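Allow me, if you will, to draw on your knowledge of protein folds for a short while. I have a record of one protein: its chain in single-letter code and its fold written as discrete structure tokens. The full record is reproduced below for your convenience:
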Amino acid sequence: MWDSFGSNVLGLYDTTTQTQSTVESFGNGPADMALEPSGNTLLVANAGSDYISRVNATTLADQQDLTIGARPDGLAYDDNGDLFAVLGVSEVAQIDPTTGAILNFIGNLSEADGLTFDSSTGMLYVGSDAGGFYTVDTGLTSAVFTDLGITTDGIASSGNLLYLINRGVGGVQYNLSDQSTLVSPGITGADDIAPVAGLGSQQTTPEPGSMMLLATGLLALKRVIRRKSA
């Protein structure tokens, strides 16, 4: 599954034949996506507007639009099936996945973008164009910023490892235990990354080296450059 923010389309990519199997006109600035716990539907943040769309993961048919009232970006479910979203590039909110109602939120984040949940740490991680990432508890009571000096867009996690995208440059692995970083080879147009842990991700977690290859491979496959205004 891929999207194009500038062209307003969603697409399915067949990894067996290496061809586009489906491409559909869609929404207003489709950006971040999250597979729902059922595996049958996908949430798509329409960052050019104020709603999140629920679509069929096989046909890409739009089934429901959840009006949020603010620009949505990153989306993630936690292990309890609670839905979280980055809204207005400045807050993380818990969203009712049926109605779209905002149940709780934490604000005052700077240039927030991508979002991931890690089942090992039980925390949310938020990519920030301000140069790093925020660590946010699922109760949405605190947000702690870590400055990496990079423009962080996509973000995924596994245990004590975070995988981040330095937009347009490549991938970065950050170790939460010892604050060390590894940098991938350059990936032109790098923008987002697939989740490697938590609901909506693969059930078996590969070794860290393999995970980084998976992440960078997916990025190369995506080949979608998304330029978003603040």
Confidence is low (pLDDT under 50) at residues 202-230. The CA atoms of residues 152 and 166 lie 5 Å apart.
